[in-house]
Design goal:
The chain has helices at residues 3-23, 108-111, 118-132, 265-272; strands at 31-33, 37-41, 47-50, 53-55, 62-66, 75-80, 86-94, 100-103, 153-155, 160-163, 166-170, 173-177, 183-185, 190-199, 203-211, 214-221, 223-224, 231-232, 237-240, 251-258, 261-263. The protein is α+β, with helices and mostly antiparallel strands and 273 residues long. The chain folds into two domains: 24-94, Immunoglobulin-like (Sandwich), CATH 2.60.40; 100-272, Glucose Permease (Domain IIA) (Distorted Sandwich). The strands form five sheets. Strands 9, 12, 14, 15, 16, 18, 20 and 21 form an eight-stranded antiparallel sheet that branches. A five-stranded mixed sheet has the order 1-7-6-3-4, with no helix packed on it. Strands 8-10-11 form a three-stranded mixed sheet, with no helix packed on it. The longest helix is centred in the first third of the chain and has 21 residues, at 3-23. Bound molecules: zinc ion (ZN). Zinc ion is lined by residues 155, 171, 173, 175, 253.
């Protein structure tokens, strides 16, 4: 064998071995926080299950899911590789502190809704939940999310809320204080999956679907500039800040979901940096 041929042979061997190993890698973070969006990598063509769902896998092998506020972990992700081998990955979950937050001065009718309103609230919440079950094959959620408006953060995700002295559910998103009429930008691209100017508890409400089960919701809006089915690009104006529904004053509530699991928009912003 000529020296040049030998060199090629030596080169070819480790290169092939390396390529094979790279294709078969399964990469998830070893640990994550409550309320986070987790992105992982699996061999392209794998079948992936987490939390009773089969996850969509991109052509390049990316997968994503959300971790709930009260998730204790460890999380188990089952990957069936194209070669048939099933591998379970575990992720530990770092707990967070959830302070108690008293919110006084909200309209009493939104804290103790009249009995005749109960059916309306149930119907409205069911419609929003249905929008969150969407599982589109779009990867808008992989964009680097931006803040929908500037301003002081007046309420954090996960805080245990007490409305007018009555214990309510945990705060499901982040509140950003701003004047009524402030334009709200789409934090990432997507399709408008829900839009209603007048829900009882959340007022002017928009849901944007970012694909793979991820969605953003914008509540208490004074104005809606988009309709269900519209494609919106990151940074596009979708509506305006208001104080409609259960609110003490003008602010934007931005929530995020992975299907029904609520995740923390602040962690999604932090990961984008
Ligand atoms: Zn809020």
């Amino acid at each position: 064998m000529k020296p040049f041929g030998l060199l090629l042979a030596l080169f070819a061997l480790p290169l092939c071995a390396h390529a094979e190993a790279a294709d078969n890698r399964i990469i998830f973070p070893p640990s994550t926080s409550q309320g986070s969006m987790v992105i992982g990598k699996v061999p392209s063509g794998s079948i992936v299950h987490y939390d009773g769902r089969q996850l969509r896998v991109t052509a390049y092998g990316s997968v994503g899911f959300g971790v709930g506020r009260d998730e204790k972990g460890p999380l188990t992700i089952k990957v069936r590789r194209p070669d048939g081998e099933v591998i379970a990955s575990e992720i530990s979950v770092t707990p967070r502190d959830w302070p108690i937050e008293r919110v006084n001065g909200v309209p009493p009718k939104t804290v103790n809704p009249p009995a005749k309103i109960a059916a309306r609230i149930r119907r409205e919440q069911a419609a929003v939940s249905a929008a969150r079950e969407r599982n589109d094959d779009r990867t808008d959620f992989t964009e680097s999310f931006i803040r929908p408006i500037d301003g002081r953060i007046s309420g954090r995700f996960g805080n245990q809320r007490i409305y007018n002295g009555k214990p309510g559910s945990a705060h499901s998103g982040m509140d950003i204080a701003a004047a009524t009429g402030t334009p709200v930008k789409a934090p990432a691209s997507g399709i408008v999956s829900f839009a209603d100017a007048d829900l009882y508890l959340t007022g002017g409400t928009i849901v944007i679907d970012h694909g793979f089960g991820f969605s953003s919701n914008f509540l208490h809006l004074s104005r809606l500039d988009v309709n269900v089915g519209d494609r919106v690009e990151q940074g596009q104006i979708i509506g305006a800040v208001g104080s409609t529904g259960r609110a003490t004053g003008p602010h934007l509530h931005w929530g995020m979901n992975w299907f029904t699991v609520r995740i923390d928009p602040q962690l999604v912003l932090d990961a984008a940096r």
